[in-house]
Amino acid sequence: MILFAADTPSWMIVPVALPLIAGLFCFLLSRRTFVIALLAVLANLFVVCLLVRQLLLFGPMRCQIGGWQPPLGISLRTDGPALLMLLMTAVTGLAVTLYARGYFSYRISDPLRAGRHRQQQRYFWPLWLLLLAGLNGLFLASDIFNLYVTLEIIGISAASLAALSGKPASQRASFRYLLVSLLGSITYLLGIVFVYRSCGVLDLDLLRDLAGNGSAMRAALALLSVGLLLKTALVPLHFWLPPAHANALAPVSVILSALVVKGSFYLLFRFWFEVFAPIVTTAALNFMGTLGAIAILWGAMQAIRQHRLKLMVAYSTVSQLGYLFVAFPLSRVVEGTHIWSIVIFMALTHACAKSAMFMAAGSVYLHLGHDRIKDLDGVRSSLPVTVFAYGIAGVSLMGLPPSGAFIAKWMLLSASFASAQWWWALVIMTGSLLAMVYVFRVMSRFFVNSEGSSGKQTVALSPLLEWPALILALIALFLGLLAPWPLRILSQGSIGLVQILSGGMV
Amino acid sequence: MNSGQLLLVSILLSSFIPGIIIFCLPEEKHRLRTFLNLCGSIVKISLVLLLNVGIYYGHLFEIRIPLIPGVEILLNGDPLSALFATLSSVLWLLTTIYAVGYLEGSPNRSHFFGYFSLCVTVTIGIALAGNLVTFLLFYEMLTLTTYPLVIHRGTEKSLRAGRNYLIYAFGGGAVFLVAVVWLQSIVGPVDFSAAGFSSSYLDSNGTVLALIFVLLIIGVGVKAALVPLHGWLPQAMVAPAPVSALLHAVAVVKAGAFGIIRIVLDVYGAQNLLLLGVLPLLAGAATITILYGSIRALQQDDLKRRLAFSTISQVSYIALGMSMVDQPLAVIGGLVHLVHQGVMKITLFFCAGNLAETLGIHRISEMNGVARRMPLTMAAFTVAALGMIGIPPTIGFVSKWYLGLGGLAGGNWWLLLVLVVSSLLNGWYFLPILIRAWFAEQQGAWPDEMYSGRFETRLMLLVPPLITAFVVLIAGLVANAQISPLAWVRFIVRGYSL
After folding, report:
1. Domain ranges (residues) in chain A
2. What pTM does this model have?
């Protein structure tokens, strides 16, 4: 048998194994790390595209590693949502890799800076590749214990990345992040214990068929959810996120904000709407929606009040995550795969736009040496591309057409009108207007004509620091126009939904 | 892609591509920039004229891009979109020439002209939008592309104006979005069509549909500066004169008014609106706006602010015409005022800009005897101001004549009263300016005289207002000819079988 033919599912192993191996090489060789990482990320993107093609041609697939069958072996699977998340990670990952290269080679001639950057790069590349492997594993794994392993990989590498900048503030924040992440993992593990005690299986597909029974499963779902919510930073469990994201190095902020929180959310969503869908009650959905609504408003209000750009962007993440949860109570109204498309569009747009925004914030920080919002005058003339990227990313976050978030908001709004739950519409629109305030509060500072330069010598930024942000921002903005493609991938189905729609058990 | 679709796309690209190139040009390449701008606008005008001809002979121009079920981007060339597209593209050319002269030597010009081109692209997009979603898309884009122009000077005052502009515009956009989604959840996807949606929905959802109509009008009313949603407009006067001209005559306010027209004629349709009984609300809002704007204009000494309040007042004639949608003559008056108001107002702003740029005059009290120093500018100003008052044979008279006829035909005597009172008010705030300029003695030196050359001011500043003033006169004289805005509007109205 040919292991890697165009139609074999074995390709699924590559996105998990390749970054892992590349990370190992980066760590051991500690030279040419960027080249290794770039090759790994490019190969990852290529294989993900191949998997998408496979999905479109042959539908969802499973891959048993080593040929062991579900109750025992490790198995991976692809379906629409998983592949879109993989694609999001691969594209953002490529941009981050390029951006990080630019970031670490900024003013490399300055000896002090060079030493620090060499030290940071030494650990950045291996950790980033490890994190990438973890994320890819999370999207592909089909067993809740393997998922636990990927969650741990993600949590530990993310917390270490957050500590890289070495400043006291970031070390405090990342330590807190680590603790929260571990607490989340332990709660999650406890949930697994409940599941295993009452069902005796850990595979997601087998579980879905068994998950109809009793309070033990409810308790299990509650524990799994709390663990994941801690990692997703839904209000009121968001306290760790802003300092951790805002104090990290710019490329790390991008990774944390755009990708890491999406991983745990994705898992949570799978549990609620596929695996444990039969035991989820309307009250629970409404509860999640309410938390989401509070997150939207509270996060946006906090973002408006911040004095530092990176903190503002971090609070914006808290707010944007809320939209993902507002989809929960509306899920009963929308038919079929719609509920997936709402969260996928929201998540994809946020990933691209928030990456672009953190990249822009990072470039501004490098350029000016600070990110105080009131002193951002005149950046427009020195960093036009970055300012442009920031603006377009902001527009996407506000959910203006034609961004992907607009499509998601449109679906949310029409679901809330169709079910006469107009208060969700009110929250969504208020959130957009508040986003307008925090985006443009900064934007208008960029446009102030500074009275001569502040006398400080500034070095021109490398294109790697400016263009990846702009390209990601443009992807976020035009995602809405490209909507049929993601929808086509989604309609290939998540295995679960196809089965639910065709009448439950198969 | 057939030739009709190609035409629509190239109309949009003819300003988009120059805009993008201009962004990438270095600041000092002003010759290349001007060349690109002029090329773009001339190409655009030719293509739009081609579109007019095609539409007149009944060709179909349509592009559909489905996004998700129930949401599609629809670009559609119908007679109404051709009217707005022609107005915008012609005035864009003149404004570009004017702006090149106006901004000579000022900083950040490549950004300015880049956004300027994008702004026109978006305005044409609004003109070509064939359903509410597409309209909303370009409507929000318009806010985004004009914002950098409003705050172009980068002063604290302009930032404040820009902030207010954003709050009003995005607030309106949010209301509009909610209304659109709500409407679609009841009647399904609506394309702009002469009949509007089926009246069978009115029985079960009458109240809700009336409420949605009000929300939609609020959404576009922000840009159309209906009182009390007009607060952003006078503040936005801090922007450079070409931007004011663009906001008032070509793009923003016009986009709002155009939205009102689309909602009344193409989304709801005359029949549904008469059944719902919401038209008196629109008529009331328009009347209040007309009178309030005029009265506030009287109190302003700052020339541009007076013009701004005059815009608020004048644009509502369009809404007034739409509120009598059952009277073809009133509809003609409203539609044709879309063009007429644009040409007259842009002339006034060009002239105000000339006074400020040449002599440093910003206030009406400084204008004594200015006509002797700048006779051509003030002649253009005078023609446009007389047009605003509605003196025959200018185009302003044509608009008011049709509105009045429509009001009489429908038995709405109050309308005539509104027209008379507002014309008196118009005269009251324009005539003193003219008298000062032509007949008063100059008092002391000009505040800040910056130009002394062969002509009264730079040629690029002088020619555009002269052309538009000429149009104000001629289009009024030949209003009944085969080719005139009025003739085209009649062609539009024939399509609605009112």
Report:
1. 1-140, 165-280, 292-449+461-506
2. 0.93
